[in-house]
Amino acid sequence: VRNSLISGNETIKMALTIAVGGRVWRKFFKTFPFRSNSALKRFPTCRANGRLYSTSSDVVLVRKDEESGIATVRMNNPPVNSLNPTLMVALRSCFEELEKDKTCRALILTSQKPKVFSAGLDILQLYQKSPDHVAQFWEKVQDMWLALYGSRLITMAAINGHCPAAGCLLGLACDYRIMAEGNFRIGLNETQLDLVAPFWLRQTMIDVIGYRQAEMALMIGALYPSDKALQLGLVDKLAPIEDVQTVAEEEVKNWLKIPDQARAITKMASRKPLLDELRRRKQEDIQTFRDETTRESVQKSIQQYLEKLKAKK
Ligand SMILES: CC/C=C\C/C=C\C/C=C\CCC/C=C/C(=O)SCCNC(=O)CCNC(=O)[C@H](O)C(C)(C)COP(=O)(O)OP(=O)(O)OC[C@H]1O[C@@H](n2cnc3c(N)ncnc32)[C@H](O)[C@@H]1OP(=O)(O)O
């Protein structure tokens, strides 16, 4: 059904795009506009010593290999890369900057701190906060996801540790996932916090692991060990934790053999309907999240979840 949402016009545009050679990228961007963000300007670009992009807070570290065009984006928000507004804005800015860099062909997303890729959304940002705060927070989640999921680049998640909830959301937004072997978990455990995955996150889970498995995983808020995740297709490859980055680079090099434009157009053809749907329903999605999250019973569940996290020690 989603594929059929791409109209005949768009298919013709895509074919023309391929046919016109030199002007291909201009046409491509017209067909699939990537949004830019004025917030980008707040993050200076640094090109010294191979360190290409640097955010003002260094919560995202980026290195680009000029020869291959591969950028490695490391989340650096200790202790667990929880996605707070600073990290999400920095990630979005970074994805958009790389998108605009014509010499960049691939992006590897990983964690600066092995053992935790990302603990998901910063739960403290959802607890006892005003509805406006929660709404603004959710818009940052949407924008970060739109930038990554809608990227023309080869996007590879090098999941070097635990990857629950919105950590998994980031992984699912990539084209390929390599995860560390061992006792690390991945999944969408939102229901355990009394939260419900939004339609666009649910859809990406369905797209990656299939309807039945996604339905079950989402209902029970399952977190899978990496071997089970591989079996389900939630990740594509496993590697020893110390090799995850190298294996990701090797995999990217294989993908780089495919001509960029055909790969990117094919990717966009399958992702555009969902991207468009979220863009169209953005405000509705924000309102739902705001209303659900600030509900008293959900706040109680979040409080209990936070207590459980603290009690773990
Ligand atoms: C119809 C409906 C339509 C619309 C939609 C409506 C609603 C949508 C709703 C939801 C969709 C949201 C999608 C995403 C949601 C989320 O991401 S919620 C976050 C879920 N995350 C988790 O459950 C992970 C929790 N963390 C852990 O399990 C562990 O921390 C870890 C396995 C990741 C790492 O373990 P350790 O290395 O042992 O580290 P610690 O547990 O000791 O943690 C260190 C420190 O960090 C704090 N912390 C951990 N995770 C978070 C977090 N996510 N946010 C904030 N803080 C976190 C932890 O409490 C420790 O703090 P201190 O005790 O040191 O102060």
From TrEMBL:
<dbReference type="GO" id="GO:0004165">
    <property type="term" value="F:delta(3)-delta(2)-enoyl-CoA isomerase activity"/>
</dbReference>
<keyword id="KW-0496">Mitochondrion</keyword>
<dbReference type="InterPro" id="IPR029045">
    <property type="entry name" value="ClpP/crotonase-like_dom_sf"/>
</dbReference>
<keyword id="KW-0443">Lipid metabolism</keyword>
<dbReference type="Pfam" id="PF00378">
    <property type="entry name" value="ECH_1"/>
</dbReference>
<keyword id="KW-0276">Fatty acid metabolism</keyword>
<comment type="subunit">
    <text>Homotrimer.</text>
</comment>
<comment type="similarity">
    <text>Belongs to the enoyl-CoA hydratase/isomerase family.</text>
</comment>
<keyword id="KW-0732">Signal</keyword>
<comment type="pathway">
    <text>Lipid metabolism; fatty acid beta-oxidation.</text>
</comment>
<keyword id="KW-0007">Acetylation</keyword>
<protein>
    <recommendedName>
        <fullName>Enoyl-CoA delta isomerase 1, mitochondrial</fullName>
    </recommendedName>
</protein>
<dbReference type="InterPro" id="IPR018376">
    <property type="entry name" value="Enoyl-CoA_hyd/isom_CS"/>
</dbReference>
<comment type="function">
    <text>Key enzyme of fatty acid beta-oxidation. Able to isomerize both 3-cis (3Z) and 3-trans (3E) double bonds into the 2-trans (2E) form in a range of enoyl-CoA species, with a preference for (3Z)-enoyl-CoAs over (3E)-enoyl-CoAs. The catalytic efficiency of this enzyme is not affected by the fatty acyl chain length.</text>
</comment>
<dbReference type="InterPro" id="IPR001753">
    <property type="entry name" value="Enoyl-CoA_hydra/iso"/>
</dbReference>
<keyword id="KW-0809">Transit peptide</keyword>
<dbReference type="GO" id="GO:0005759">
    <property type="term" value="C:mitochondrial matrix"/>
</dbReference>
<dbReference type="GO" id="GO:0006635">
    <property type="term" value="P:fatty acid beta-oxidation"/>
</dbReference>
<keyword id="KW-0413">Isomerase</keyword>
